[in-house]
Amino acid sequence: GDQGVLIPAANVKNLMLRQDVVDAVAAGQFNVYPVEHIDQGIELLTGLPAGERNKRGQYPKGTVNRLVEDRLIDIAKKRQLFERKGQARRQSALGKQSAGSEEDGSGLATPADARGR
Fold it and tell me: Which residues of 52-63 are buried (b: 16+ CB within 10 A; e: fewer)?
């Protein structure tokens, strides 16, 4: 069958199943997959190799770990770009604000005409 459960391999010796589950496993309708490492589970669930880093520290193309790492790098780059754009907007807004304002000691710009100067 297409249904099953992943369990830590160390738990196999203590595994206790109901008789209907034992029967389903025997009939090929249900599977119990003991895994020693998370990468084994990843491979069983996705049908793709998990992948191990090579000597250059990279995961092979076509592996789950490579896909995950590539996506994380993409997200980090987008975040950095978003942050740089936000900093540029804040600096631009502060520049416009300080053109007709003074610092009041609070770290906030206050329009000079509003302070009666």
Answer: eeeeeeebeeeb
